[in-house]
Design goal:
The protein is α/β, with parallel strands linked by helices. Helix content is 31%, strand content 22%. It has helices spanning 49-59, 75-83, 146-158, 176-183, 193-203, 207-211, 260-273, 278-293, 305-316, and strands at 2-6, 10-16, 42-47, 65-71, 91-94, 100-106, 112-117, 136-141, 163-165, 188-192, 216-220, 226-230, 243-246. The protein has a nine-stranded mixed β-sheet, sandwiched between helices. It has a four-stranded mixed β-sheet with strand order 3-2-6-7. Strand 8 (136-141), helix 3 and strand 9 (163-165) form a beta-alpha-beta unit. The chain is globular and about 55 Å long. The two termini are 17 Å apart.
Length: 321
């Protein structure tokens, strides 16, 4: 059986403004802003939460099913996915839309101007779970079109397929009752520390109340590691203790954090789909995140399955099954 990955496929356009934005924006004229920034360099990087997770799962030796919508402009990105063995069987191409795209301009003080065009992602619900003709061992609902996230989570739960809910960047678009419905009955809720605070605020519930509604809760905290808490719902995987803190793997260097969380989630999914404990998944996820941080771009880990396994054994003193 395979891991189902639902989430966005996006193209990132990275630009650097070799000056400071604040020197060119007049605060008292912000109401009629009309300013242009010259950016000598432009980099195009392949990204999107769903594609990033699938890419990293492929590095780990799995053959994930990526369910998403893309535009007619996928082009070179499609070649990249093919070259790295990421299947496109369940990518629905919308000929009248662009693939989701993010335009990021950073100045010399690390301030950023970001423009995001959702494009085909807004119609992700048109890539239907019913179209997947293979058995699914576990599925993740990661940032995507809101309607698609709701429908995928509902259907995975209805089919009693272990469902990992990862609202990520889309979390602010959910009202409290919508977010609670998305979370309710999930096998795992995985969020970063900021998203965790926002989840509690939106739902009006504390850690215990939310844990009662899921199989397990994973909160990532960057360099502080991860918190794993057992929930009240029955799940089909092992949890070693009721609540534990997993240390972070230190990156050899910090080059680019973009896609670090997606790499982490690939480790989590790999462990659970191979019958390993949730804590093992968080340790592998931490390693994958550290490997990603060291490279530029969200799909930049250069190691293969054997290389990752060797790093895992070196870091934790045990073989990766």
């Amino acid at each position: 059986m395979s891991v189902l990955v639902t989430g966005s496929v996006a193209i990132d356009h990275i630009m650097v403004f070799e000056d400071l934005f604040k020197k060119h924006i007049l605060p008292d004229q912000i109401h009629r802003l009309n300013v242009a920034f010259l950016v000598p360099s432009l980099e195009k990087r392949w990204g999107g939460t769903g594609a990033n997770i699938a890419f990293n799962l492929r590095l780990l030796g799995d053959d994930p099913l990526l369910l998403a919508t893309v535009g007619s402009d996928l082009g070179a990105y499609a070649e990249w996915l093919d070259d790295h063995g990421v299947r496109r069987d369940y990518l629905r191409v919308l000929e009248d839309a662009f693939t989701a795209q993010c335009f990021i301009t950073t100045d010399t003080d690390s301030n950023q101007l970001i423009v995001f065009h959702p494009g085909a992602m807004e119609r992700a619900h048109e890539a239907r779970l019913d179209d997947v003709r293979e058995e699914i061992s576990i599925g993740i609902v990661s940032p995507n079109g809101k309607q698609a996230m709701i429908e995928y989570a509902t259907e995975l739960k209805a089919r009693q397929i272990p469902c990992v809910v990862d609202p990520g960047q889309q979390l602010p678009t959910f009202e409290g009752d919508e977010l609670l419905a998305l979370i309710e009955g999930a096998s795992i809720l995985v969020v970063n520390d900021y998203e965790w605070l926002l989840t509690q605020e939106k739902t009006g519930m504390d850690e215990g109340a939310i844990a009662d509604r899921v199989g397990a809760l994973v909160v990532t905290q960057g360099a502080k590691g991860s918190i794993v808490r057992r929930g009240a719902r029955a799940v089909g995987f092992e949890i070693e203790s009721d609540r534990s803190e997993i240390a972070c793997v230190k990156a050899e260097r910090v080059t680019d954090p973009t896609g670090c969380g997606d790499a982490y989630r690939s480790g989590l999914l790999y462990a659970l789909s191979h019958g390993l404990s949730l804590e093992t998944g968080t340790r592998l996820g931490s390693l994958m995140g550290a490997l990603k941080v060291a490279g530029a771009g969200p799909q930049s880990i250069a190691l293969d399955r054997d290389g990752i396994a060797a790093r895992y054994e070196s870091e934790f003193g045990e073989k990766l099954a």
